[in-house]
Amino acid sequence: KTVEGEGTWTVDADTGAITFTPEAGFEGNPTPIQYQVSDDLGTPSNPATVTVTYLGAPALTLEKELSGANPDPVVLGSELTYTVTATNSGNVTLTNVVVSDDLITPDEITCASVAPGATCELVGTYTVTLADAIAAVVVNTASVDSDQTDPQTTELSTPVQPPAAPTAEDDASLDNPMGTPVTLDVLENDAASDGRTLDPTTVVMVDADAGSDGKTKTVEGEGTWTVDADTGAITFTPEAGFEGNPTPIQYQVSDDLGTPSNRATVTVTYLGAPALTLEKVLSSADPDPVVFGSVLTYTV
User: pTM to 2 decimals?
Assistant: First the structure.
């Protein structure tokens, strides 16, 4: 007797023993069958039932996916909807099935019982943060547990388009009176991206003095650069007696979401500052090609 989806029952022609052979992959209990037997005079018996059961094989499978109308591309501030599905892939009913995902809201659901083939589903949302955008990916892990199975997890990575950084442009204040402090509004020619705004309180100098939070940079023998903590303006104050042009410095600024800009250079020059330029060239009538023994004439 063949039962589709379960297996085959056979009777031994000599002994009368009945055997059930399950189909490959069948993990349930087969439908009971009935049999009869006759005596030596050919009188048949009443029908009797044969039942075979198997030890339970509890099992869960866990899947996680983006669901619904999620944005494409995923960017900073995007709201993502995730569906986490636990399926009873065994042959016994599971109890106290808990599906969880700490990243989404809501982050957990408990199903009191899940029959074989049935599911327990968690649907939640997550908003992409600046940290996700900078990392260019959202990575989160879902888990499932039950009274009958061991805990298991699944991980899903969602690519995120990195935020566009603000653009900082070089700044210069030229031909200032010797010995005077010079202040530059360095943000005047800088720009944020994607409708954001620059945060002037985030202006910091590269290689600033230790402990100054990027707001002070002292160059020995020249003077001190400072950043106004409120406006972001940068001031160079020369040391007493310094009569040259200070070494240019670099700064960065961040937008209102904390995304830093490129480095921009600030240059200050003074009137009457001593300056030298140096060039060195080969003079005319030098041999071509230059070989061993050639006499070369240089002009510096």
Answer: 0.53
